[in-house]
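FAQ: What does the model actually see?

It sees only this:
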Amino acid sequence: MNRDNARVWQRHAAQWNAVGAPLKPSPEDLQILGQEIGHAEAAFGETPWCLLLGVTPELAQHQWPKASRLVAVDQSAEMIGTVWAENPSIWSRPLRGRWEQLPLPSRKFAVIAGDGALNVLATAEQTRLVAGELARLLSPQGRLLLRCFVRPDVPESTAAVCAEAMDGRIKGFHAFKWRLAMSLIDPSHTTVVVEDIWKAFERHIPNREDLARRSAWDRCEIDTIDAYRGNHARYTFPTLTELRSTLNDVLHVESVRWGTYELAERCPNIALSRREP
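And it is asked to produce this:
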């Protein structure tokens, strides 16, 4: 992990409890996850092995199949130390590592799940590398279950998104934050530098007290934007079509499902299986 990425995840870990939907999975997303885990039942065997990409508490504490063994892989020691909590019902352990090269056996996992995991990868090529590694780890009848953040086919302008926020027409700050980030994506690529999100916020909304008053957002939520200041890591926001194209060589899309919360249309739950050679 480079220094910029390390700084991102140090700050992310420190403010985890202040982050809300849609950045965190909703009850609807967890319900979809449970249903998709059920569809992978044929891959379970006597001891279902499951893998998490990251240490998202809502996923780690999910009601996994009885007798499951759950491994959660994150490259950030800060996220593991601050956010990780063992599942009280099954064997579960964190492992520090990079998703591009996981020290885990092939065809071992009945279920692999992640929330926003692909969005922290800096390039489409990195996404392809991770997809190939996940396909290697999936058992033949296993399922990869990902909630992803995708930008709309028709882009929004940054000024328009910020104007909606100031007019009180966006329900949640974190939905605004993702819309702001996606509005900065140039059509020629799919990534945004994390600090540029903060810069755009400061440029278009210089008075946070005014924003809090007009939007009814809590000031501590608004201040979570400061975790992006000085960070030169990248977030990736492809369109759904671009994402499917990137994954298509090694993974097959079984289903795409959405919740009904604010910005859910940009947070699809995608179930995938491995493509056999």
